[in-house]
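Q:
Just now I want nothing more than another pair of eyes on a protein record. Here is the record:
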Amino acid sequence: MQQQASVDGEALEVWIDQDLCTGDGICAQYAPEVFELDIDGLAYVKGPEEELLQARGATTPVPLPLLTDVVDSARECPGECIHVRRVADGVEVYGPDVE
């Protein structure tokens, strides 16, 4: 089991807003263990067993070894649809809604 990434000791999770996804696949290139494009051309997060999580707003933990790749995905995404937030309070720490 991989250790989960954290910010200030708090666990992180990631989700994709498919309404904004452009299907460029940058996320799947950066972190294929976390993101995958489906047959509909949109990106989704993968669950712990690498299953595609297609429910709206589905989240998956950010594994510590992949934190940089997940953050780079959020920063480089042309659709600005990747959101990384703290599990405890849902506050976005990386992505388009960071204040």
Residues 67-76 form the longest helix (10 residues). The mean pLDDT is 92. The helical segments are 26-30, 67-76.
